[in-house]
From TrEMBL:
Residues 44-195 form the HhH-GPD domain. The gene is mutY. It holds the Pfam family HhH-GPD. Its cofactor is [4Fe-4S] cluster. Belongs to the Nth/MutY family. One of its GO terms (biological process) is mismatch repair. This is Adenine DNA glycosylase. Adenine glycosylase active on G-A mispairs. MutY also corrects error-prone DNA synthesis past GO lesions which are due to the oxidatively damaged form of guanine: 7,8-dihydro-8-oxoguanine (8-oxo-dGTP). Its EC number is 3.2.2.31. Binds 1 [4Fe-4S] cluster. SUPFAM superfamilies: DNA-glycosylase, Nudix. Keywords: 4Fe-4S, DNA damage, DNA repair, Glycosidase, Hydrolase, Iron, Iron-sulfur, Metal-binding. It catalyses: Hydrolyzes free adenine bases from 7,8-dihydro-8-oxoguanine:adenine mismatched double-stranded DNA, leaving an apurinic site. CDD domains: ENDO3c, NUDIX_DNA_Glycosylase_C-MutY. It comes from Lactiplantibacillus garii.
DNA sequence: GACCCGTGGCC
DNA sequence: TGGCCAAGGGT
């Protein structure tokens, strides 16, 4: 890791901010510095690219123009606003945060990073981003862009996958950032990180700060940032049961914790829960599903295969392989079943995860309005 | 500190 | 295809 002297720091600040003034992106959440706007955009942008976020952000502001609107929203509407973005706990935490603001802060945002970080769903990065952009606090906002940009500029070789590495970057960036335009500085780093200083195909030759980029000058830019690899997604097998009740579908709302919390799917049974023998036949599996429905839900049904091709869906650390069955319910008492019958028109109002869209697509059902 | 939590894009 | 990446936070 290298250290810059005061003259280099000043030179870098001026170069970066001049570039940002000319080439910074015009984004919907940059029209003002309203903390609500900054906050919503920052949460949406976690692990999500700008082009994906833009339409979600516009619709979110249409549906929930203020913190009070968000605090009062029904959860179904909330999750629908987030449908397709992923990491659904983000939006449930946002509503908790909105309610905290109204109940405990008289609706006034804390203006420091430490104060903001007390709120649900706001961690060190988002606290720094809101504090610097909305409240002009000279604090770093260390995200993936900052890791990538500063690891290359300064040749910082600490493993960015390790939590303690954040402190190294926070200290390095704090020395470099200006006190007069901290929000613009942090946003300029993000724009740099998503344009000239991308992970795989950086275009440093045209970067406004290439003369400060020590890794590039040394010819080993792609060695930064140093990051240990993540484990492969673990395979998990399911059986999905597509059961009609008249023209309705039998669907369940997933538990409020864990994967796809509170979203709606058809019944998904972990194959492991069917307790099949190693030499079980296809017929054995169908019988096991019928027995499972009777045991767990007190429901009688008959099942048959829908499609020999399983639906596959890969999450960050699970790869689901889902065999599809159609079911005909013999009984319709849903007292022991954690769900209900859902009409086709109601389907468009419920929050549905992507994997369920894939399952419905095999049955010829489109969820587009 | 390790693990959990979605989706889309790219090669 | 599989692996990696993209404005992280909670437990």
């Amino acid at each position: 890791m290298i250290e810059w002297n005061a003259a280099t720091i000043k030179d870098f600040q001026t170069t970066l901010l001049n570039w940002y003034d000319q080439e910074g992106r015009d984004l919907p959440w940059r029209r003002d510095h309203d903390p609500y706007h900054v906050w919503v955009s920052e949460i949406m942008l976690q692990q999500t690219q700008v082009q994906t976020v833009i339409p979600y952000y516009e619709r979110f502001m249409d549906w929930f123009p203020t913190v009070a609107d968000l605090a009062a929203a029904p959860e179904e509407r909330l999750l629908k606003a987030w449908e397709g973005l992923g990491y659904y706990s983000r939006v449930r935490n946002m509503q908790r945060c909105a309610r905290q603001l109204l109940a405990d802060y008289d609706g006034q945002w804390p203006e420091t990073a430490a104060g903001l970080a007390e709120l649900t769903g706001i961690g060190p990065y988002t606290a720094g981003a809101i504090a610097s952009i909305a409240f002009n606090q000279p604090v770093p906002a260390v995200d993936g862009n900052a890791y990538r940009v500063f690891s290359r500029l300064l040749k910082i070789d600490a493993d960015v996958a390790k939590p303690q590495t954040r402190k190294i970057f926070e200290r390095a960036i704090a020395r470099i950032m200006p006190t007069d335009r901290p929000g613009d500085f942090n946003q300029a780093i993000m724009d740099l990180g998503s344009s000239y200083m991308t992970a795989r195909q950086p275009d440093t030759a045209h970067s406004p700060v290439k003369r400060f980029n020590q890794a590039y000058l040394d010819g080993d830019e792609l060695a930064y940032p140093v990051k240990t690899k993540k484990p492969r997604p673990k395979p998990v097998a399911y059986v999905a049961v597509l059961a009609r009740m008249g023209t309705d579908w039998l669907m369940t709302q997933r538990p409020s914790n864990g994967m796809l919390a509170n979203l709606w799917t058809v019944p998904l049974i972990p194959v492991a829960d069917l307790e099949l023998a190693d030499d079980a036949t296809a017929a054995d599996q169908l019988a096991a599903v019928t027995a499972y429905f009777k045991r767990e839900y007190r429901l009688k049904l008959t099942v048959q295969p829908l499609d020999v091709r399983p639906v596959t869906h890969t999450f960050t650390h699970q790869k689901w392989t889902i065999q599809l069955l159609t079911g005909q319910l013999v009984t319709s008492d849903l007292a022991y079943f954690a769900g209900r019958r859902i009409s086709e028109s109601e389907l468009t109002r419920l929050p549905i995860p992507k994997v369920q869209e894939k399952i419905f697509a095999r049955a010829g059902v489109s969820l587009k309005d």
